Amino acid sequence: MALPQSLRTSVTPPELELIASEQLIDIVPLVTMEKTAFISGAYGPLRPPAKARVPLWIAVNLKLKRKCHIVPPEWLSVESLQDKLTRETSNPGFSELPFRFAEISKVILDIASDDLENPDKIRTLLKDIREARQSKSREGISKLDHSELGLSGLCSMEINEIRPFFIKGMSVLTKLIRDPEHPPKLDET
């Protein structure tokens, strides 16, 4: 979601992708490497054709050098995403998806679409899921009250997108509750 600079009080999508790059993912290495220590931990050894579990940032680095294939997570398949879309459009709540699914799927689609089965369909399904979830978020925000916001099941990207609006809305509601006879102007927040 493109926001004007004045509303960018949250982490940017590229920053969220960087945070998500610590998530572990399976790869099939094409090279042999011994166990290697990094600040975040030790990973390996890599022995083709055995799968290895490494952080996404290592998988991306190896993929760009053509030294591995990324094994997509189970949820990043046409069948799984179709099921999630059906649940999103038929149930009032949010379907179960990994907390960083938006960031992980974007990175994998950008870097390793050749490792996915039917990446174009996956992109379309992710877009449809995102639109359905955004609609539910907007509906939830419209029912906002001063005590709570019941939107459990949101992912990190979605939380980040609604944060500026939520903060501003809660500020206005708080001022209304404190002094209902003198409501604040919208530009006072």
Automatic annotation (TrEMBL):
Any one annotated GO CC term: GINS complex
Keywords carried by this UniProt record: Chromosome partition, DNA replication, Nucleus
Domain (DNA replication complex GINS protein PSF2 N-terminal) ranges: 12-71
Gene3D superfamilies per record: 1.20.58.1020, 3.40.5.50
Location of this chain's protein in the cell: Nucleus
GO BP of this protein: chromosome segregation; DNA replication; double-strand break repair via break-induced replication
Domain GINS subunit, residue spans: 75-173
Lineage top rank: taxon: Eukaryota
SUPFAM superfamilies linked: GINS helical bundle-like (SSF158573), PriA/YqbF domain (SSF160059)
InterPro entries, A to Z: GINS_A, GINS_bundle-like_dom_sf, GINS_Psf2, PSF2_N
Oligomeric and partner information: Component of the GINS complex.
Protein family: Belongs to the GINS2/PSF2 family.
Name used for this protein in its record: DNA replication complex GINS protein PSF2
Gene source species: Thelephora terrestris
